[in-house]
Specification:
The structure is a single chain. The chain is an all-alpha fold. It contains one helix and no strands. The radius of gyration is 15 Å and the shape is rod-shaped.
Length: about 35
């Protein structure tokens, strides 16, 4: 596998994880307003 392909896969995985975390945090704020 090319290094570029590996980097692209890692970036996709990191972005997906960050999106999941952000969505979870936003939903927490909606269900438990401060």
């Amino acid at each position: 596998m090319d290094r570029d392909i590996l980097i692209a896969l890692l970036e996709d995985i990191l972005i997906a994880l960050l999106e999941d975390i952000l969505i979870a945090l936003l939903e927490d704020k909606k269900t438990r307003p401060t």
